[in-house]
Amino acid sequence: MKRLAIAALSALMSVNAFALFSETEPNNTRATANMVIYNLRNTPPFAEVGVLNLIPNDSDFFKIRLEAGDYLTAITFPIQVLYDDPDTVMALFDATGNQAIVWNDDAGAGFGSAIRWQADRSGDYFLAITGFRLGGDPSDISYYEGATHDQLGGYILTVSVIPEPASMLALGAGLAGLVALRRRRK
Ligand SMILES: [Ca+2]
Ligand SMILES: [Ca+2]
Predict the structure, then answer these.
(1) How far is the CA of 146 from the centre of ligand 1 (A)?
(2) Which domain holds residue 65?
(3) CATH code, domain with 100
């Protein structure tokens, strides 16, 4: 039984994947997006952190797979000058629409951006990050594809996905059961 518990715990550990990713330029459009936590899709929850870079007119697209009910959270942290530089704008698009599902410029302290969204349908989604500029419409794909801005510098992107609360409760109940089992064995 102990071996079974260890095997089950090991499986759960691998479920909670956490990885570091980078970008391959050009990734300035949905068509050239880098994939993020895409291949871990069958084992939520998970998070990935990328150390990325914006140069003038650069945008960074990341493709992500979501199942209906999933909660997506994405946050950018500008690295320079007290989280102010580069000033990012971030949006979430589906595979074909030109209007952002949700977008954000400044999330709070500093000029980083944050998005939180619950997927209403399963499919491929695209996170788009670019430099802030005056003018243009940050809810339109044209703000990101073919962007013109003068932001320059490194930033950190954190992306996390958790299933809807019902699945999380099931996962938690499974974990609690394992712990109780181990306690009883002792
Ligand atoms: Ca870049
Ligand atoms: Ca890019």
Answers:
(1) 13
(2) 2-185
(3) 2.60.120.380
